Amino acid sequence: MLKPEDVRILDINSSFWGVETQTLMENAGKAVYKLFKEKYGSGKNVLVVCGPGNNGGDGLVVARLLSKENSVKVFLLKEPRTTEAKVAYNRLITEGKAEVIVGDLEGLKSVVEWSDVIIDAILGIGVHGARVKEPYRTAIEVINRSNKDIISIDYPSGIQGDVIITPTYVVTFHDLKEGLLDVAGKIRIADIGIPKEAETFAGPGDIYVYYPRPDKNTHKGQRGRVLVIDAATFIGAIVLSALSAYRVGVDLVYIYTYFNSEKPLRKACYISYSPSIVVVDDLELFYSRSDAVLIGPGMDREIGLFDVIKPLVDVISENKNIPVILDAGGLTLLKEYRDDLTDADIIVTPHAGEFKYLFGYSPGNTLQERIENARRAARSWDITVVLKGPVDVITDGRRIKLNATGCPAMAVGGSGDVLSGVITGIRAKIKDSFKAAYIGAFITGLAGEYAYKRLGYGITPEDILTEVPIVLKECLENPTSVRRVV
């Protein structure tokens, strides 16, 4: 059963997978037209009441199709606002035979009385808050008092508000929607061509819907605090991960370091033009202040780290409400101290070899094997697994997402550090480890594609890092235009 946010994600992700919103709108209109033909035939007086959004655009398609065999009037509560609805309106004017009435609520009652059947294309999922605003409120009340047959498109208008259309039929799309079973009317679920990949793979719609935008009153510390714990021989990896967290919008990144590497780290941060990365000396204090913690970049699991690992396990155990991302050498914590970390909120990011090291069995070769084995590992260990590969598999044991972004040019040392930093930064902002993991994988992979398109095979992790905020910006500002570039 789909929630309103799922519907928006599917719409955007369909565009990413090559099925444009305009195509979905046309198919939606055809589905409603088909039900009308089955139930009412032709030669009817049909009133189509449209709002300004894409639900109204669906109604304009229906009006165009019905106008060839029926007497059709279109009542526009407001003029079309979206690009797709404007296209549907222009096609109605040039190809249809309907009479169009714009915004005259006084005249709505008379055209309602004239009609045999009313098509409700006023509001889709766009009502937020208890009270439905004008002119939609009056339109819904007038239609409900009419005692005419009503066909609602996708949702009865007002379903999230305090007044709601009471339809005879609802034609909804792709799958059953949350709340529909509570309203009157018979429900038909229509396939309008949403690709399977829009639901099973991560896409720009997930970022658009789930990424929290700061408001004008946001101050430092409210957009996420990340702690990166360094017990590493490769200091550059730590800085890469820390910078990656910044690039997805957190505003404070701390590094806690073992092995007397504080001075080299400070120098590395300065060289990377990142004096805002704070090297701290109180692990327990800054751990408790953080929204997400990353352990592992630059750590070699073959080097004896057990003097470091056991105290870390103790701190994690005392702060199980704070999510932990384990990468590279950090996976040793979970392998050696699994029982101590029960109930901790953990994300792991292994490639195939690390997966076998951690869980004791191969993830498999086929995609289906990788899905099943990743899910098995996540379920049995109660963690979130990001199994890296040509297609990433992300699962918490219950939910599964795949990620197809990325390219061979990303097979370079340090790209995994960017990924773990991005996931940690997103997790500091999104309070769901599964969603943060697959969104982070999508962003990093697409950033790698952008870097490859710009520079070719000789890209560095820093090049990927540069593209991360560009990907994020495009997904937030113009998500239906985001495309893979390789």
Structure description:
The chain is built from 18 helices and 16 strands. With 486 residues, the chain is α/β, with parallel strands linked by helices. It folds into two domains: 193 residues, YjeF N-terminal domain (Rossmann fold); 278 residues, UDP-N-acetylmuramoyl-L-alanine:D-glutamate ligase (3-Layer(aba) Sandwich), CATH 3.40.1190. The strands form two sheets. Strands 10-9-8-11-12-13-14-15-16 form a nine-stranded mixed β-sheet, sandwiched between helices. It has a seven-stranded parallel β-sheet with strand order 3-2-1-4-5-6-7, sandwiched between helices.
What is the general shape?
elongated
Quickly give the structural class: alpha/beta
Q: Sketch the major β-sheet.
A: 9 strands, mixed
Per CATH, the class of the largest domain reads Alpha Beta
Low-confidence parts, pLDDT < 50 over ≥5 residues? none
At CATH level 2, the architecture of the largest domain is 3-Layer(aba) Sandwich
How large is the count of helical segments? 18
Helix fraction bin: 40-55%
**Rg, nearest Å:** 27 Å
Give the DSSP E fraction (strand runs of 2 or more residues).
15-25%
Q: What distance lies between the first and last C-alpha atoms, to the nearest angstrom? A: 34 Å
Which fold name fills CATH's third level, the topology of the largest domain?
UDP-N-acetylmuramoyl-L-alanine:D-glutamate ligase
Major β-sheet strand ordering = 10-9-8-11-12-13-14-15-16
Number of structural units classed as domains? 2
What is the number of beta strands?
Answer: 16
Average residue-wise pLDDT: 93
CATH 4th-level superfamily of the largest domain: Ribokinase
